Amino acid sequence: MKVRFQTWFLCVALSTGSYSAAANTTEPQDVAPENKILSLSAIQGDWVFSGTVINESGERYNYYFQMHRKGTQFSAVAALIDGQTKAALVFEESSATIAQPEISNWRVGHTFLKFNPINNSWIFGVKTKDKKGFNFKADMLTQVEHRPAVQDLRSGMELLVNQTGRLNGHVQHGADGTEEFVTGQKAWFRQIWLSKPQESLHPFTGILCQFNDGSGFYAVNLQEADALRGAIAGWRDPQGKPGSMSQFVSIKEGKDGLWSIHINSPKINLLLQDALAKEGEKHHLIAGVTDDLWPGFCAINKDEIGQLPEPKPEHIS
User: Fold this and answer.
1) What is the pLDDT of residues 258-305, one digit of tens each?
2) How many domains does the chain contain in total?
3) 2 is a domain residue
4) Is this structure's pTM higher than 0.85?
């Protein structure tokens, strides 16, 4: 899952490469209640939760959680960032082979992800060896009229991005391992999965931003000639209602881990300080607090999904 950001990506625009990509659009909505998680039946998928929680003193913590499945191979990334100091408190990457994975309960290294169909909620988090991390429960109780529909990135590659209901849990980051109770009004939840076999790998790039006023946006880019939709983006107001948004989103790297994100409409220019930046080391994830004009939290990740690895031949002695 460790796909590095290459130089060509630093100034790439998340667009379809045509004039229509810059037009404002409102994403399609699904009026049917969600009674099952389609992505969980796929043997290849990518699940991401991202957002902000607040403790009882009003201090903000930003988090990013990703679980990636490719058959029996699982990998996970978890990050916790202090909203006041903008410093990374936790960053954990894990991978594991699960020969017989359960359909909705996975533990990879120090990270875990579980879906409970009884109360329609997700539990996810990380707890490192030094007892740092977070654990959250996100309720998937959203209004039917705000429920997004599954969208096709390409034939057999599905995308669903929505916001969860209320989220609560604990964070641990101090030397004494003390837990802090935190809550959040919502979180971004992005699912990408394969519904058909693929003959090759498909790299994709995603952006998730949540601002302190409760609004936010997402963008997903698939740079392939046969993509049904090369770029998909969506906006949410503070109440979670979808709004019109340009599908043209561009990102650019500056100096000292500073990134800029530009949207044509609504007119937004963000400055993002990558809290995970380390000298001489590149991750597939960029995450950090945004500047004062649009205070909040953004995460940019690059990954790939597609062809399963060839099975290793059995050794016969």
Assistant:
1) 999 999 989 999 999 999 987 556 678 999 999 888 999 999 999 999
2) 1
3) no
4) yes
